[in-house]
Amino acid sequence: MISWTDHASMMLPEDPLHPVPWTRMDELSAKLRIDVPISQPDSNDYRITLHCFNKETSALKNALIMTSRIEWKSPKTTVFFNAFHADLLSIVNECLSTHKFQIFTKRNCIYKWKSPEQLVEHEISCPEDVFLAPVNLESLDMVRRHRGQFPGVEEFVATLILHKPSLGVYSRRTGELCAWVLCNEYYALASLHTLEAHRRKGYAQLLCNALSEQLLRSNIVIGALVEDTNIPSLTLFKSLNFKSIQPFHYISAARSVTAKE
Question: Model-level pTM?
Answer without folding.
Answer: 0.68
